[in-house]
Design a protein that fits this description.
Blueprint lengths: L3 H45 L3 H28 L4 H11 L6 H8 L7 H20 L8 H24 L1 H13 L5
Length: 186
């Protein structure tokens, strides 16, 4: 019998790292989009001023939008089921050292009705995939570039808002605080 459990555990490590990185990148996307939503809230506050009903409607819509974005970009990728075959294909696309052995091991290694000759071939492929899986770096297949890009954009936008609030405390700082605390305008 083959030793597919070693491949499955290695793929599980890749799966968890991929999901974690995707969720963190999704959180950066939510931060970027939240800055845009906050800008719309500030414009609505400026336009509608002291009228409470439109401000509350915009506030509720903004909270709902942020919750939707959190679900879409953070929670949904964490809950996504990724089969071993799909993950093996992804790893092989980003790491050519496997030469098809990982995908073949994921496809046929779980067992089934095979002749003794087929079983020997599958076992040899799994052994080859296990040897190569022990040597490859998970960092080579986890999509870090997207996380860096969105994280940098989110930090820049937040820094711009913070700087602008410090430079113009009367115009932006107090309005932002009023929106965040949902206090009525004076």
């Amino acid at each position: 019998m083959n030793d597919y459990s070693k491949i499955a555990s290695r793929l599980n490590v890749v799966r968890k790292a991929w999901k974690r990185t995707t969720a963190i990148a999704g959180l950066a996307i939510v931060l970027i989009e939240s800055v845009g939503i906050f800008t719309v809230l500030m414009m609505a506050d400026w336009i509608y001023g002291a009228r409470t009903a439109p401000r509350i409607i915009f506030y509720i819509a903004a909270v709902a939008a942020v919750l939707f974005l959190l679900f879409r970009h953070v929670v949904k990728p964490l809950l996504r089921k990724i089969p071993d075959e799909q993950l093996a294909l992804y790893v092989e696309e980003h790491n050519r050292e496997f030469e098809g052995s990982l995908m073949t091991a994921a496809e046929f290694g779980k067992g089934g009705e095979y002749t003794p000759e087929q079983s020997k071939l599958i076992d040899a492929i799994i052994v080859s995939a296990v040897n190569r899986a022990e040597k490859f770096s998970i960092k080579s297949v986890v999509p870090i570039a997207r996380l860096r890009k969105y994280g940098l954009i989110a930090m820049i936008l937040i820094a711009v808002y913070a700087t602008t609030s410090i430079i113009f405390p009367e115009a932006l700082g107090k309005r932002a605080l009023r929106i965040l605390t949902l206090t009525p305008p004076p």
